[in-house]
Design goal:
The complex is a heterodimer of chains A (about 500) and B (about 475). Chain A has about 500 residues and is of the alpha/beta class. Chain A has 3 domains: about 1-185 and about 225-270 and about 305-340, Nucleotidyltransferase, domain 5, CATH 3.30.420; about 345-405; about 430-505, Alpha-Beta Plaits (2-Layer Sandwich). Chain A has helices at about 35-50, 95-115, 140-145, 150-165, 170-175, 195-210, 230-240, 245-250, 265-280, 295-300, 310-320, 330-335, 345-360, 360-370, 380-390, 390-395, 400-405, 445-455, 480-490, 495-505; strands at about 1-10, 20-30, 120-130, 180-185, 185-190, 215, 220-225, 255-260, 340, 430-435, 460-465, 470-475. The longest helix of chain A has 24 residues, at about 95-115. The termini of chain A are far apart. Chain B is of the alpha/beta class. Chain B has 2 domains: about 5-185, no CATH class; about 240-475, no CATH class. Chain B has a 5-stranded parallel beta sheet. Chain B has a 4-stranded parallel beta sheet with strand order 1-4-5-6, sandwiched between helices. In chain B, strands 2-3 form a two-stranded antiparallel sheet. In chain B, a hairpin with a 2-residue loop joins β2 and β3. In chain B, α11 runs parallel beside α13. Chain B is elongated. The chains are: A alpha/beta (about 500), B alpha/beta (about 475). The interface between A and B is large, with 42 and 39 residues.
Chain lengths: ~500, ~475
Amino acid sequence: MKAIELFFDESGSIDPDGRGTMVVAGFAIKADSEPRLTQFHNTVFAELAAANMLAGLCDKETRRHDQISLPVAPANDSTRKPYLRKRPDDGANDQERQAHWRRIVAAADKVAASASSHNVEIAAFAITFPANTASPISTTLYELETLTDQSFLRRLEDALEFLLFECRFIASELATGIELSVNLATRAAEIKSCDLNREDMVKSALKQDWGHRGVSTAKGVICDTLQASDGISILASAINRRGKLWQAMGGHVHVSRSCCYKLKDWDDWQKMRDQDDAGVNAKARGQKAKDDRCKSYIQYDLRPRQIHYFADFISNAVYRKNKICDSPTFQDWFARGFRFDATDPYCDAWLSALRGYSNGDRCGALLGMHKDDATKGNRANTAIFKERTAHWPDELSGEEYRALFQRIELSAGSASATPVRTATPGNADLLVVCIPNLPSSCRNISGLKSALGTLISGAQITLGSNEQHGCFAALRFDTPEAAFQAREEMSKSGDWPSKAFLEASS
Amino acid sequence: MSLGSLPAALSFILEGTRGLRIFDYGDENVFRDLWLNALESDHPSINGENSEMSAPEQQILIIGNDPPSDAFAHLPESLRGINFCSHFTATSWLAAWKVKFPKAKAAIAVIDHRETDLATGTACGLQTILGARNPSAQAIIPRATVQNAPSLTSICQWLHDSAKDTSRETAPHHRELLKTTIWNALTSDRERHHAISNVLGASLLAEEVGGKTSVPVQPFLRALVEACGIRAKSPGGQESWMPAQLQYKLPAAALIDDMSDLWSDFVQGALGRSVPLRTCEKGKFADEMKELPTRLTKALEDETRRTLDTSDLFPTPAGETATADFVLFLDLRLHLDDKFRAALSKVGWLLLQSERNLSWLEKGRERLESDLRRFADTTQPARPENPNDPEETLLPRLLSLIDPTLPIVIFSSTHSTDLSDPFRDYGNIITTFRKPVLSGLNASWAQMVKELRANFASAMEQASRIIETRRLIRGACDK
């Protein structure tokens, strides 16, 4: 069974009032079997270590926190850090920044070479989205929307869903069966500058209503939103979005792991250790080492694969629009994955359509796109999505085509144009009228019937609905002439069903 | 005696007879004036001279019954199989005139040099009515007769008798009888392809939508049907049949009809002038369509293409842009030869063997296969024209399968349910609107037009929805 591991990280931060962007990115690795992936990880670790390119702590380190030390600089080059730094220094000049990114590309080249030698494939992905993405859940206190991090989690699920079900790199393997491992990154959401009273209120509501624990800091309130065990619920949410498809696959996918890992790069580790040494984080100065953060991290937190740090590099490069994304290695990885911009307002409509289609509502998917004008989206995004939709016309059944023809709206305001369908042969006194804008589940049928009665006199009205035509009214007149006359009247007043519906609703 | 010398001889003999005029029906000017002037006014100009048709002393001998030999000689290809002459005999004119001017006092005789039983078609029926007499031995249609191979004596006798019979008018029910006879002759046999009712429908409807067919026979037809009480709108109006809410929803249209010369004016007018209409070049229908199977094969072999454009249906000169979104008006009976039929059958097999999504064939695959096997057999002798033959439905079915989002309006005068049945499974074939069937005069023309217009609007709404879907799928799925 093939084995696939996914690695995620993000860059940027949610800001309900801001206009910036955020990125969820990462990569997937695929091999013929899980042991082969394990060998690959071992090789990557060994090669990066040999090249002084380890990025941070990982599962290969010892369990003794006091024995973990920073990689040592080579004797002949003491100016360069003997590891891959997460970011260049704040005061770094252009040359230093470029050198930083070059090292990351060099490390990625090593990973690519190792992948090649182990027959492992790599695909990168990235979704850029607006930092002010709306939370799907509205909370009583607006701060809670940020602290519960729903906006970000929604996007994270978007990325995981798209990766699993729309990225050919993985989707093509799902039917035959895979061993899946999902490696997310832990995360904390933060709000700034609450006044004291409000801060307590926010923390209290966070705990009472959402089961989260907010921690006050000098800057505001911080709350862990993705912890180690949250990986499975995120994966489950993403899979549930494609419930029908997942069921149809008949359990071929075996999930071996889904966790959130704390990425602790070397600079961060060093900083934490310095703080521990100074006793900054101890409850009381000189207290036992069990309170040290370093020890806590090593003992209680899950440590990531070394390669997971590349998810951070990728997301950061995409977030900063860094040119390393154009390097041959990254381009090659992205070519197997995807990269799109969800700041495009039409992007969500595409994602929703893809979801609807794979869940079996093919007409609904297309009609939703039509309603939202999804095809007006930016060209780069559209090209990516069209890769996924190109086969749709080859799968639509005759019934689905018919349903599309019936249900499609010509344009806003004219959906009810010429609502009269044909009088059936031999039933010239009968008119069947489709009411396209009316949901088939309209509850106020008697109201609608009465409203129709005021608009159309002299007809016996029967209302009905079905999947194909939506709501319809069968109008039987005393004579074919009366039916003909009514049809003429209706043709002149194209929006009468809407009027009827409005009257019925009121 | 040759017909050419008969008018001259009679003129010589009857010269000086007061109020008598003798017209040679074989003369093109006379023919034109009788149909286009004399049915419009009771003092028309005929052959350069005014005639007073309301005056009791006016007597007219029309020599000859058949139209001039050149009258319908220069018709477009699509009209060549139609026997216009039988509808425009002098007898028909006389009947039409009697219907139009029941109180006119002029006495008119058609002098046909042939024996009675040589008269055929409309002339035969009308001649019977014109020759009929009431129990008092008076002609039921006063002061009008058709005389076959008459002697000079009988002509003079008629001139004498009709001069005295000036008080009677044509009874209303006799006018109705004449009218019905003319109309029935025009509209009978409407299922036959080369029936005049096809021409009539096109001509009348073109005028309804402010168009005018460029067919030379139109003014004569118009005169004849107006005598029957059917008055189309005056030419010059610009009234499209497209409902306001569908304006601009249909970007273009195409018409495949071997009589497109006739029907294109109506279709264009009904759609509105802003909708470009692609048809075959005049007189080149067979030439342009014979390569249709080849063009369709090419489109089928291109696996990247899911839809057809106008260049797949019509030859497209270099530099001319093909249109992708259009509604196709398709006649069923195209009268293309067996070779075309066999080539189309090959297209059908190619389609069935392709990887394409044949959405409409979820049930009807066997039926199509059976039809294709039958049509591929070119050794079968040419069959007589049969409007109910499913062969006629093959082209629309194939086009519908190749391109399931191309709206195809069956634009046929065939109203047989046998023909709409094969289309039941094909969701993009629209059978709501068809060419009109002109039948009995009981239903009013206005009512028929009203109904046609409503059906047209309904068909165009269906077509607009299909095109909207087509655009949606292209926007959503075409790379």
